[in-house]
Design goal:
about 140 residues; mainly alpha; 2 domains; elongated; about 70% helix
Length: about 140
Amino acid sequence: MSDIHSPSNGIQRGARREREDWCNRERYSQWRARSAQQSASAEKTPSEPEAKHDDSTIERIKGLPTSIGVILMAAGVAGLILPGPIGTPLLVAGGLVLAPKAFGKLDAYMKTRCPGVRHHGVKVIERFLDDLQKRYPDEPKAGK
């Protein structure tokens, strides 16, 4: 007769626990330290030239036509719903075009409270606008 409480494969519970060790405290603490470093590096304050470049990009966004603001808002909503592009920076950029006074306050808040997040968002917006400019230039090329 076999004992009901013994494992069927012959490995005792203590030996299995030591071998698998799925809850290794040392590995967990190393993982926590790495994730803390990564989150700290994501929150770095941009350097002075980067901050000036971000400010000039924000001024460029405020000067865009209303139709581009609507496109930015639509891309932002799509980015929130669908996976892929980041939607929140595009929503803020569209808001800066359509309502610069209200969204300018949000930009000033982000500039003081979360400069690293703002810098990352401005880079996303800038790439989007540069790509939009390449695909649909302001003036048609001669000869076409």
